[in-house]
Amino acid sequence: MPVSEFDIIQRYFREGAGKIIGAGTSAVRCGIGDDCAVLSLAVGHELLLSVDTLVESVHFPVNYSSALLARRALAVCASDLAASGASPLAFTLALTLPTVDEDWLSAFSVSLADAAAEFGMVLVGGDTTRGPLCLSLQVMGSAPAGQALLRNGAQVGDVIYVSGSLGDASAALAFLNTEPAELQADQADLLARYHAPTPRLVLGQNLRNLATAAIDISDGLAADLGHILKASGVAGVVRVQDLPLSAALLNHGSALDAALSGGDDYELCFTVPASRRADVAFLSASLDLALSEIGYIEVGHGLRCIDAQNKVYSPANGYQHF
Amino acid sequence: MPVSEFDIIQRYFREGAGKIIGAGTSAVRCGIGDDCAVLSLAVGHELLLSVDTLVESVHFPVNYSSALLARRALAVCASDLAASGASPLAFTLALTLPTVDEDWLSAFSVSLADAAAEFGMVLVGGDTTRGPLCLSLQVMGSAPAGQALLRNGAQVGDVIYVSGSLGDASAALAFLNTEPAELQADQADLLARYHAPTPRLVLGQNLRNLATAAIDISDGLAADLGHILKASGVAGVVRVQDLPLSAALLNHGSALDAALSGGDDYELCFTVPASRRADVAFLSASLDLALSEIGYIEVGHGLRCIDAQNKVYSPANGYQHF
C-alpha cells in the first residue's frame, strides 16, 4: 500500500521520528492537522516572518544528506529572524519530494526536530507534495511593537560590526564533494560552517535597543551591507584589515574575497552609534561571541572598502540567483 | 545583462506590473524588502496561517497560464483561511522558476495583485529561486482569540452543510486541454470552477459563532468531511440526494461521484447545531450563497452515504498525493 500524504505527516512530523509539533508551547493554540494553525502573540508584540526556499542542485547538492538539509534549511531561515531581532516562535514547512523514501524522511524529521528545539521553534503547519526536491520554510517570531531591527536605520556616525568570522562557508564550497576521510582538519572546520550555520538569534534579540540597522549575511558582506546602505540612504566604509577571518580560512587562499563576497555565513552585520561601542563589547563578552568593528557609516551612497594604507580594495560581486 | 532576483522582486512585485505590496495597510508595519516582514494584529486577535504548494504537472498542467496560476494559487490557499473563519491579512510567495520569462512574470504579477485585492490581502514577503516551476504560498489572517473554526467541534445532533455546488471542478479535469473554441457552454462553466475557485472568506467569518466545525473541500467531500468526523470523534451521514449539483455538472456524467470524491471545489463543509438552522438560512440569504443541508452527525465513527431509499451509497476514494 502506498504511503499517503497523511501518513507522512503523521509518521514523520506529528507522532513518530522527530515529533516536532510543540502543542505544549503557549504561543501555539493549534498546530498541524487543521486548515490553519493558530498562533497567539504576547500582548504588545508584533509578528515577524520570513520565507526561504531551497532547491536541490541550486541551494544544496544532489544527494545531500537529509539530516544536514533539515538543519541547514531551518538555520538559514531562522537567521532572518535573528537579523530582525525576533524571538523565534514557530515555522511551517512546504516539502516537495520526488518519491517517498522513508529512510530519507526519518533522518530529515529527527534532524529538523533537533534544530527546532535548538532554535526554540515548533512546526505548526505545512504541505507535502510530489515533485522535484524543494523545501520552503516560513519562520515566525515576535518582538515588542516597534522594536524590530530593520535595514533602513543606519546613521552617519554609526560604526559597522559583524559577528563571528566571515568567508568560511563559501571557502568550503571547493571541497563539498571531498570524501570525509580525505579532508584536512581546517577543511572540516570550514565545511561545518557551510553545513551547520548558526542563526544568531540571541545576538539579534540583544541588538533590539542597540543596533540602528541589521542584516544577516547570506549573499556576502559587500552585497548585504550594501542593502543596509541603500535602505538607509548612506555610504559605508569597510577596513578590510579588520575583517574577522578564521585561522582555517587564512590557510585556504583568497580569504579577503571570501569574507567580502562569499555567501552562506549567516553572521549578522549591524550598525551602532559610535557612542555605544562599550555596550557592544559588553554584549560580545556576555554572549562569548566575537563582534568585530569593521568600518563606519558616512554621508553619500555605496560601499567603499579600504586597506591598511587607505587604498581602495575592490571585492568581487555577491552571489546573484539569476 | 541577466535579470537578477532583486530586479524580479522590484519589477514585478514591488513597483511595476501588479504592485501587490500594501504598505498602506495598517496591519503591515514592514512589507517586502527587509529580512522579515512585520505584521501587527488587532488587540485580542490570534494569527491564523496556512501553507499550500503547487507543483507544475502535479497541481497544474505544464504551460498553464501564469495569470490563471496566480489567482488559483492564492484562492486555494486563502480557502484555508475561509475554513478557519479568519479575516485575511497578508501572504508570502516562494516562487521557483526555471527561467526568467518576463511575459510570464508580468501576467503572473498583475493577476496576483488582482486576486490579492479581491481577497483583501497584501504580499509581505517571499523568496524567488531558480529550479523546476513550483509555488508555495503562506496566507495569514486573524480572528478574535478562541473563535477560530476548527475541525474537532462537531457534536452529535449537529447537521452538516456545504456551500455552493460540489463536483464541478473535478468534472472539468476531463476537458482541461480542450481548445476554448470547442468547449460547450456547460463545459466552460465547469472549467471556470477549476481555474478560478472562490475562497468562501465572508462565509467563514460569519460562521465563527455559528459552526461547530468547518473544513474546505480540496480533496473531495467524503475525504474532507471524514477529517471533521475523525477529529471530532463522531460519525456522519450524508444524504446523496441532497448534495448540491450544478446544472452543468448534471449534464456531464457521474455527478454524484464527482460531488462526493472530486477535489478542487474549495467550498466549505461545516456542522451546525440543528437548533440553529434558521441562522444558516438567514446567512445564505444575506450572502446570496447556497448553503445546503446534506446530512447529520451521529454517535460512532466514519462516514455513511445513503440514498433516497436509505440504502448505502459508496463513493470512490478522495485524491491522495502519494
Automatic annotation (TrEMBL), chains A, B:
It holds the Pfam family AIRS_C. It comes from Zhongshania arctica. Keywords: ATP-binding, Kinase, Magnesium, Metal-binding, Nucleotide-binding, Thiamine biosynthesis, Transferase. Reaction mechanism of ThiL seems to utilize a direct, inline transfer of the gamma-phosphate of ATP to TMP rather than a phosphorylated enzyme intermediate. Its EC number is 2.7.4.16. This is Thiamine-monophosphate kinase. HAMAP family: TMP_kinase. Mg(2+) 5 binds at D219. Catalyzes the ATP-dependent phosphorylation of thiamine-monophosphate (TMP) to form thiamine-pyrophosphate (TPP), the active form of vitamin B1. Mg(2+) 3 binds at D35, D80, D216.
